Amino acid sequence: MKNQFRKATLDDVIAIWDILKQAIERRKQEGSNQWQDGYPNLEVIKKDIEKHVGFVLTENETIVGYAAVLINDEPEYENIKGKWLTDDDFVVFHRVAISENHLGKGLAKKMMSCIEQYALDNDIYSIKADTNFDNVAMLGIFKKLGYAYCGKVYFRNSPREAYEKSLK
Q: Where is the N-acetyltransferase domain (predicted)?
């Protein structure tokens, strides 16, 4: 299986939205309130792509995952209740989702590895991210990949667990 991590194009929107709808439903089935408020949505994805921050993970040309990957662009992170490991430039990722048909293959970890490489390619040595307190899968990935818990950040009045990984 050949994986590729690339910038998303507007031609990818429908496949990306299908994957995100599956993830939204999965979060609902798990009893989480994360992504149950109309976010993310199709417009958010289109804006990601237009701003060149939407990325897809493909397997043999089929889109199997999505993430928005930004550099130094998360204003809410300035208001952390806690302390980041670094104050340097950082890559942040949001809206990570893997296709329902491809769960359990380690693709989320593969995508995180690609995001780390993207950071290094841009001479950035910090990755910051957040997730809901009950997103067991993502919390487990953070732990396995060596992310440090740094505190809480808030989005739409909802607390998120904030993590950082130093790549130095």
A: 3-168
